[in-house]
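Request: Give me one sample?
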Amino acid sequence: MRPQLRVFTGEDQTFEYQEPQMSITLGELSRVLLEACRSQRSFLRDFEDDPIHMSPDLYQVLTAYCRLRPGA
């Protein structure tokens, strides 16, 4: 008996590509961003619309800080 062969088109399976996730401490990130801001590095504008993933508690702290009145 001859084996049955079929043409594989790749449509049977769908693969969703995910960008690799990298980790950095907030301390490291803040030092790099501070220096880049002080030096007015143009690469900051290249990434200004990129989403950043963070822990819920850090998000809450940053959101609360943004809502503070200046000088409060």
